[in-house]
Amino acid sequence: MTFARIAGTGSYLPENIVTNQDLEKMVDTTDQWIRERTGIERRHIALEGQTTVDLAEPAARQAIEAAGLAPEDIDLIVFATSTPDKIFPSCACILQARLGIRGCPAFDIQAVCSGFVYALATAEKFIKTGTSKKALVIGAEVFSRIINWKDRGTCVLFGDGAGAVVLEANEETGVLSTHIHADGQYEKLLHVPCGIADGYDQVKAGLAFVEMKGNEVFKVAVNTLGKIVDETLEANQMQKSDIDWLVPHQANLRIIAATAKKLNMPMDQVVVTVNEHGNTSAASIPLALDVAVRDGRIQRNDVLLLEAFGGGFTWGSALIRY
Ligand code: ACO
């Protein structure tokens, strides 16, 4: 049996940091409110002109290097983002050219904060079926570009960044299972209410902003993530205690803590970066994964549970033997 195993990870954060104290000067909020309600202390925000692919490229190069590979070894690129550089070509194609790779399939996936799990699930299937051997999977965003910096309900939550993994075909172990879902009936609880079809003038004018009914999203997120934990464990006939690390989407420390509680897992087995990164949407899981791999917490053969919930609504998980 062929598995897709993580061969290397990488990440990149823009240098510019915006603290809660900086935000206190911009909107009617406090450092205390942001910390208590979300766990966020600071976030990285891309400089003017810095694009999603600009952030993705160093993350991708780092992941390829960590895998001991060269860019030309990559035979599939799957790029998760909701803030692409252009309407087309895809970020995956733009990145492919920057990396000097030619000919392999390259495409974007749009599932907002669940984007990385969707991209991983997709790339894993290409490897399992023998179509690809070495896949580059990226989550990268400049969410700051679709934030209304006058809306305290959303502007304190998000940050920019990029994370990447290289998945390599392996006969022994790797991704054990992936589970992805969506329910479009919740569209208006979390969306950018205009796009190319009827609001392109607003997009061009930089007036296309995230709108979120945070409290309602919160309740559905906690409930749904609890269910995906059960679904993932059942599919693998595993116990909660078999999981070494929870690597969750980093939207809110209270949502993360609820999932850890569901797993009977102490918080020191949970990779938390939301305090430093904010919610970087599709980038948050690969960013968190790379942090914990590089600081030595995550070791080879550890069992990782990745989970995410986001706009759509979309949600998903991946169980991985690292
Ligand atoms: N500073 C101070 N007060 C604020 C702020 C702020 N930045 N933002 C909102 N408030 C106020 C509200 O106006 C409200 O005041 P009121 O009671 O006088 O009306 C009060 O704080 C409570 O607001 P709630 O929205 O009920 O606060 P809540 O505890 O739910 O926290 C939050 C808000 C952090 C947004 C939370 O609901 C959340 O994390 N939701 C889920 C987000 C999520 O997971 N999204 C999915 C992924 S994102 C994606 O896919 C793009």
TrEMBL record:
<feature type="active site">
    <location>
        <position position="113"/>
    </location>
</feature>
<dbReference type="InterPro" id="IPR013747">
    <property type="entry name" value="ACP_syn_III_C"/>
</dbReference>
<keyword id="KW-0012">Acyltransferase</keyword>
<keyword id="KW-0276">Fatty acid metabolism</keyword>
<keyword id="KW-0444">Lipid biosynthesis</keyword>
<feature type="region of interest" description="ACP-binding">
    <location>
        <begin position="250"/>
        <end position="254"/>
    </location>
</feature>
<dbReference type="GO" id="GO:0033818">
    <property type="term" value="F:beta-ketoacyl-acyl-carrier-protein synthase III activity"/>
</dbReference>
<comment type="pathway">
    <text>Lipid metabolism; fatty acid biosynthesis.</text>
</comment>
<keyword id="KW-0443">Lipid metabolism</keyword>
<feature type="domain" description="Beta-ketoacyl-[acyl-carrier-protein] synthase III N-terminal">
    <location>
        <begin position="107"/>
        <end position="184"/>
    </location>
</feature>
<feature type="domain" description="Beta-ketoacyl-[acyl-carrier-protein] synthase III C-terminal">
    <location>
        <begin position="233"/>
        <end position="322"/>
    </location>
</feature>
<comment type="similarity">
    <text>Belongs to the thiolase-like superfamily. FabH family.</text>
</comment>
<feature type="active site">
    <location>
        <position position="249"/>
    </location>
</feature>
<keyword id="KW-0963">Cytoplasm</keyword>
<keyword id="KW-0808">Transferase</keyword>
<keyword id="KW-0511">Multifunctional enzyme</keyword>
<dbReference type="InterPro" id="IPR004655">
    <property type="entry name" value="FabH"/>
</dbReference>
<keyword id="KW-0275">Fatty acid biosynthesis</keyword>
<comment type="subunit">
    <text>Homodimer.</text>
</comment>
<dbReference type="InterPro" id="IPR013751">
    <property type="entry name" value="ACP_syn_III_N"/>
</dbReference>
<dbReference type="Pfam" id="PF08545">
    <property type="entry name" value="ACP_syn_III"/>
</dbReference>
<feature type="active site">
    <location>
        <position position="279"/>
    </location>
</feature>
<dbReference type="InterPro" id="IPR016039">
    <property type="entry name" value="Thiolase-like"/>
</dbReference>
<dbReference type="Pfam" id="PF08541">
    <property type="entry name" value="ACP_syn_III_C"/>
</dbReference>
<comment type="function">
    <text>Catalyzes the condensation reaction of fatty acid synthesis by the addition to an acyl acceptor of two carbons from malonyl-ACP. Catalyzes the first condensation reaction which initiates fatty acid synthesis and may therefore play a role in governing the total rate of fatty acid production. Possesses both acetoacetyl-ACP synthase and acetyl transacylase activities. Its substrate specificity determines the biosynthesis of branched-chain and/or straight-chain of fatty acids.</text>
</comment>
<protein>
    <recommendedName>
        <fullName>Beta-ketoacyl-[acyl-carrier-protein] synthase III</fullName>
        <ecNumber>2.3.1.180</ecNumber>
    </recommendedName>
</protein>
